[in-house]
Amino acid sequence: MECIFCKIIAGEIPSDTIYKDEEFIAFRDIQPQAPVHVLIVPVNHIVSVNDLGEKDASMIGRLILLAKRIAEQEHIAESGYRLVINCGSEGGQVVPHLHLHLMGGIRLNDRMG
Amino acid sequence: MECIFCKIIAGEIPSDTIYKDEEFIAFRDIQPQAPVHVLIVPVNHIVSVNDLGEKDASMIGRLILLAKRIAEQEHIAESGYRLVINCGSEGGQVVPHLHLHLMGGIRLNDRMG
After folding, report:
1. A49 found inside a domain
2. For residue B104, which of B84, B79, B85, B87 has the smallest C-alpha distance?
């Protein structure tokens, strides 16, 4: 198991975890681009959006709904936030384990990339 | 009906539409930030992620899966792409009708906002 997110999920690498259940873990990005920058990660090792199939639709839906709830918990639901999923090299995906960025707490730049 | 996306869906405002079914429409952003910049929009008028509930989980999952298929169609699946959902003012949401940005065709900036 070489995946850094799988190691975080397994507790082998420390993280600033703010949420965990059987399906997802959420922890703060170690290189935050905004005052609130949380990564929300499915526990199952899925590499990227390219690897999702019809069977994953409800899981992905729950991922977005969890991001909404964490935004509330982080007190950025009303001020606003950005959800980002990078896929592949040109998309800027660094860790090859599907994850969603939740960013907020500041007026984000209109440029998204 | 004042919503510009609802008017696009109704065909009252022209758009460069590349996909449409009963649940979603996809059209090119008129102010693209990348060579490929497509907006994918639920036909139902939902303002933002903040307005999603448990009942919407599978719809949101299908939205992400549709983005994956359009990335393939646009020949950016392998090179990579970014999916962005802005929510509210500080998130940079311009049109108050839920939409997902699919961006690719160039190496996107590591900064996501």
Report:
1. yes
2. B79
